UniProtKB/TrEMBL annotation:
Name of protein: Extracellular tyrosine-protein kinase PKDCC
Bias type Basic and acidic residues, positions: 101-115
Keyword Ligase carried by entry: no
Compartments, record wording: Golgi apparatus; Secreted
Catalytic class of the enzyme: transferase
UniProt-annotated stretches for the region Disordered: 101-120
InterPro entries attached to this UniProt entry: FAM69_kinase_dom (IPR022049), Kinase-like_dom_sf (IPR011009), PKDCC (IPR042983), Prot_kinase_dom (IPR000719)
Length: 481
């Protein structure tokens, strides 16, 4: 158990800031009248970071620089939520009793309102089947099972990560380096709590506890997702790739109009996202920012990318829409250009090409881009993309009720089934068209499986000699085959 605690939550004391910052998790919304209190707390936080006698070594100047970085991160993190006024930090034992009492009260309220209880340290202690998932510059992620079946992700500062190792090598203070890194995790937790959206990973709870004489190590307990593998995504059916692009655009539209203002993802890469039941969700928010670039003229508003640059307008001392535009172009270069148009239905390709080109040129904002993607979804979901299909099917098919064909598979691309040809269709007419376009196809089977758009999954077969009875399934066999 001790080993599990070490790997999921390690580090040094977050001091007064952590106790203060976790109050965010119970506050529903930002209130501007509390800005004065936040400024007062910020001064208290900065005062708590003054070097101690033990820390005042020959590297005093370096440590001062490091603590300045910690203060800067604290100031930035404090922007994302109100922090109620609070007195001196209580002793650890008393604080734990207070947390336990508050957790019991929250659990009772959540039970009365029918909502899921927030997870905490007891959940981390009782977790089983803890497995390493991956790590980045700052954090390590572990998969764990709660109550034997409920899977969650545990996030903690990675002591072996790039940020910690480089910081310790340069400054020689593991404690201060941990404080610097842990602020990013706490900021991410605050944003997950503030930004409630289906395409943002859910925060189930958190835990701060002692481990191996290290006080207040912090662990975030979040929804578990699957890492994005772009090579695999390129081989998935178009409908699933379209879902990822639509999910991303819904997220970016929300970030443009978020309660915090227009928010940009400064570290925008596929590895910052996960898939949860086919939906794309952002998991890393520690590099998110609401800062709008200040400017005195449009020449100050240069938006730079590896392939090209854009110059935006300077309006009221800030670069107009720079956060929104940065997100949009990153969506284009990392997702849309690869996932959106390829193997799409023929009738949808002009609209999808227009979406790709417009985001690549930053001609639209998130409102327009999302509206066009929703339009493409409506056309696909309603089957309108088939209305212009005037092809006459020359082959006749025999319809067999409550029958299936267990074998006689062949492979096609892209398929929902690895060892067969399983595709989604709107209706039987589209299934017949697919079968006639495949040289191997002599029959197809419709079951009761459907996709997220309501399209039916169909298995295409090379023949029907192995046909068997199967309740609820419908088989079509080419006549004369």
């Amino acid at each position: 158990m001790k080993r599990r605690k070490v790997v999921v939550a390690a580090g040094f004391c977050l001091s007064f800031f952590l106790g203060t910052l976790f109050n965010l998790l119970s506050v529903p919304a930002f209130e501007h009248q509390q800005l004065g209190k936040q400024q007062q707390q910020q001064q208290q936080l900065e005062a708590s970071l003054e070097p101690t006698t033990a820390a005042a070594t020959s590297g005093h100047a370096l440590l001062r620089s490091l603590r300045q970085q910690i203060r800067a991160r604290l100031r930035e993190a404090l922007r994302y939520g109100p922090f109620p006024e609070r007195g001196a930090r209580p002793p650890l034992e008393r604080r734990r009793l207070m947390d336990l009492q508050r957790a019991q009260e929250e659990e009772r309220e959540e039970r009365e309102h029918g909502s899921a209880p927030r997870l905490g340290c007891s959940s981390v202690d009782a977790a089983s089947d803890v497995r390493f998932v991956g790590s980045g510059y700052t954090k390590a992620v572990y998969r764990a099972a709660l109550n034997g079946s409920f899977a969650v992700a545990l996030k903690s500062v990675d002591f072996g990560g790039h940020d910690m190792e480089e910081c310790v090598r340069k400054y020689g203070s593991a404690g201060d380096c941990y404080r610097l890194a842990s602020v990013k995790l706490v900021k991410e937790m605050a944003l997950m709590e503030r930004l409630q959206h289906p395409n943002i990973l859910k925060l189930y709870g958190y835990c701060y506890q002692d481990s191996n004489d290290i006080k207040d190590t912090v662990t975030a307990i979040t929804e578990l997702g699957s890492p994005l593998e772009m090579i695999q995504l390129l081989q998935t059916p178009w409908e699933e790739r379209f879902r990822i692009c639509l999910s991303l655009m819904r997220l970016l539209h929300y970030l443009t109009h978020s309660p915090l203002g227009s928010l940009t993802l400064l570290d925008f890469r596929p590895r910052q996202f996960v898939l949860v039941d086919g939906e794309l969700k952002v998991t890393d928010l520690d590099d998110a920012s609401v800062e709008e670039t200040p400017c005195s003229s449009s020449s100050d508003c240069l938006l730079e990318f590896p392939a090209r640059n854009f110059t935006l307008q300077c309006s009221n001392g800030h670069c107009q829409g720079i956060n929104e535009k940065r997100n949009l172009y990153n969506a284009y270069r990392f997702f849309f250009t690869y996932l959106l148009p390829h193997s799409a239905p023929t009738a949808l390709r002009p609209l999808l090409d227009k979406i790709v080109n417009s985001t690549g040129e930053l001609l639209w904002g998130t409102d327009e881009t999302l509206a066009h993607l929703e339009k493409a979804l409506d056309i696909y979901r309603s089957g309108q993309y088939l209305m212009n299909d005037t092809q006459m099917h020359k082959t006749e098919y025999k319809r067999v009720v409550d029958a299936s064909i267990p074998g006689e598979n062949y492979r096609c691309w892209p398929s929902y089934q690895h060892d067969g040809c399983m595709l989604s269709v709107y209706d039987v007419r589209e299934a017949i068209g697919v079968c006639e376009s495949h040289v191997q196809c002599r029959a197809f089977v419709l079951g009761n499986q459907s996709t997220w758009t309501g399209h039916q999954l169909v298995l295409f077969k090379t023949g029907s000699t192995s046909m068997t009875s199967a309740k609820g399934k419908l088989t079509y066999v080419k006549l004369g085959s």
